[in-house]
Every structure is written in structure tokens, then in C-alpha cells.
Amino acid sequence: MQPQPTYLLHRRPYRETSALVDLISAEYGRVRAVARGVMRPGSKARHRLQPFSPLHLTWTGNGELKTLRLIESGGPGAMLAGEGLLCGFYANELLTRCLPLELPAQRVFIFYASLLEALPVPSRRAAVLRRFEITLLESLDADPVFLTETDTPLDASTRYVYQAHWRRFRPAHAEEPGLDGRALLWLARDDWEAPGLAGVARSLTRAALAPLLGDRPLRSRELMQDLLLRRRQRQT
Fold this sequence. Notes:
By secondary structure, the protein is an alpha+beta fold. The protein is built from seven helices and eight strands. The chain has helices spanning 44-48, 82-98, 106-118, 122-139, 181-188, 198-213, 219-235; strands at residues 4-14, 18-25, 29-35, 55-60, 65-73, 159-163, 168-171, 179-180. Strands 1-2-3-5-4 form a five-stranded mixed β-barrel. 30% of the residues are buried. Keywords: DNA damage, DNA recombination, DNA repair.
């Protein structure tokens, strides 16, 4: 195996001196592996095997659980802090929870690398996160189809509710808030950065991801809510 461009998604202790890691690679998608000996004091591989840093890795094994062999740095990592860091943890948690092992996901890998470049810039975070979520949904054949349940075009003057099991929209009832049809038509044109679309885009991707995530809440989302709450409390 040639060294693979890879990012670490999650790492947890395994036995006394090893770690169990989830990775995202350009060619192999999400990979789970044992990194033997990386928890030993003074291990150089331990310092290289960090989230948000490009890596060059090789591994062996025929089953779902691989064994890492080569662990090399691929360059400097993204400088994330505060909300940007939590957004990075959110992306990692999404990939770990939603992406099946060894499903080829080259576009997801490319968008993930672009996401890490954008997260240090607050003004770019919302749009790039939504594009990343949509790319992940596309790789799983779970992205929204911008049509009604009867496969008719959306109407700009109507509010809609997204039906994740159909991947389509139905008109909202009078008591439902719904999603603005005009905004959905902008998103259908792949314009995720148009002014005023952030709330609609976030609501849509959250609804589309919900069946994939199940009932267990995202830890990164809880941490973000705690951060925003503390920030509001300091301002009052």
C-alpha cells in the first residue's frame, strides 16, 4: 500500500499503550484501525496522530479493523479554536456516525479538507458546513430532491416541510412553520451562500441528517449550545 492522504476523526485508548482510531481517507473512505504503541510516553506517532492535521498513513488487515503501519505528518494542521474547533468536532462526529466503513468517498474527503481550511474564518463557516453536509448526504444517496412528494416543482410562494424518508417536500400546514419555497429554490440551484439562506439551509440539512444519526444526540452540538449559552450569559 502506498501512503494514503488521511485525517483522524476520532481516537480513544485501546488496551494499555494503543489507540483505536477512525480515519477518513481519499481512496478508502472511513477506516477503523488500531494504532499500536501510540499511547506510550514519548511516542512520536502520538503527536502526529492528531485531529484536523493531514496525515500519510498505511495499514494492513483484511477485516473491518485494520492495523496502522506508517504514521507520517502530511503538513501543518488547521488552527481551530472556539466555535471553529467545535465545528471541526461536529464534522468529525458526522463522518464517524454516518459514513459506513470503507465506502469510497473521495468528494467527502475533498470537501472535508476544504472545510478545515475555511473554519478559522467565522464568516465562511455556515456556508461551508452546509456544503459539507450536503456532500456527505449525496455520498449516502440521502440528499434532498427539490420536488414535492408528487414530483412536481416547488413553488416560491409556498412553505414546505421536508420529508426525509421521501427526500422530498410537502406543503406545510397552517400551524407549521415550514421552509420558505423561494429559499429552497435558491438551494436547488446550489446557491448555499445567498444572503438570508443560512437558517433554511441549516434546518434542511438537520432534517435530512436526522434519520442517519438516530436518537442519540451529537456531543459536538451539545458543546456548541453550551458555548453559546455561556457567551450570552457573559453579555447580560
